Amino acid sequence: MTGYGKAEAQLPGGKLTLEIRTLNGKNADITIKSSLLPKDRELEVRKLLAEKLVRGTIDLYASFEPTAGNGAHAINADAFHDYWKSAVQALDKETVFTKTFLKDPGVGSILASSILRLPDVVDARKGDVIGPEDWPAVSAALSAALQQLMDYRAQEGRALYADVTARVADILALYDQVESLEDERITLVREKFSRALEDLAAKPNPERLEQEMIFYLEKYDINEEKVRLRQHCKYFMEVIDTEPYPGKKLGFIIQEMGREINTTGSKANHAGIQQLVVRMKDQLEKIREQSMNIL
């Protein structure tokens, strides 16, 4: 969901620059960080952003660079003259300092420069930068910025797809290794059970012992987890390949995958399988992080 797009519109008074930046987010959280865009167009802009970008934290910036002779600021002459008059009256005192100061040929420019920094002297003309006749050019620039951002997202999406699908395949390969250790695990469990009986010097009925052994092994059987995890991985691939905006659904599938991997670890009773489970968890966590950036 991260992305960046930028476009410019040449208006009669200068150049308008539009920038759109997006970050991950569950919903479309849109903020217009400029007062340049007309208020009556804000709803239209928000609707366009939501339709094109679907979800994420979306910030729209607008800046205006006036052409020479068409400054975006104007001097308030009345305010300037009032400040000037007050300043001259304040300086025109019978003191050595002011008399010396007023004889300086550059005092006028210094005073004027200081007055221009005072409140209300310079009026910013932002409200009328974009008129109704300018909107087609602004709209075209907005569409261009959106397209650039969506192209950026598409490029990132291709890299994300390659990464997460490779990790899903790796989880399946790791589970194949778990399956190859099943016979060894069952043998070790049987030996552990037999040693415990020997330590107790117990002589159970052979048939009864076999029944208890089967019950014990069934309790730690991971066949259901294997079937469900493989089904979840298959569904993950179907969703990411077929749905236009699979991000939220992939999050739910990842939760189910994690549940099966965790259950496998709790039933393992085998050091090699536990190590494989840790590697699967690591891959799944990376898939989870990457899926946050999938629409």
* Shape, principal axes of CA atoms: elongated
Head-to-tail CA distance between termini = 6 Å
**Radius of gyration (Å):** 36 Å
Order of helices and strands: EEEHEEHHHEHHHHHH
Structural domain count: 3
Which structural category fits the helices and strands? alpha+beta
DSSP E strands, number: 6
Uncertain ranges: none
How many individual helices? 10
Q: What amount of the residues lies in strands?
A: 5-15%
Average pLDDT, rounded to a whole number, is 84
Portion in helices: 55-70%
How does the major sheet shape up?
Answer: 4 strands, mixed
In what order do the strands lie side by side in the largest sheet?
A: 1-2-4-3
Structural account:
There is one protein chain. Helix 2 crosses helix 4, helix 5 packs antiparallel against helix 10 and helix 8 runs antiparallel to helix 9. 62% of the residues lie in helices and 14% in strands. With 295 residues, it is α+β, with helices and mostly antiparallel strands. It has three domains: 92 residues, Ribosomal Protein S5, domain 2 (2-Layer Sandwich), CATH 3.30.230.10; 52 residues, no CATH class; 137 residues, no CATH class. Strand 3, helix 1 and strand 4 form a beta-alpha-beta unit. A four-stranded mixed sheet has the order 1-2-4-3. Strands 5-6 form a two-stranded antiparallel ribbon. The model has no long low-confidence stretch (mean pLDDT 84). It is built from ten helices and six strands, in the order E-E-E-H-E-E-H-H-H-E-H-H-H-H-H-H.
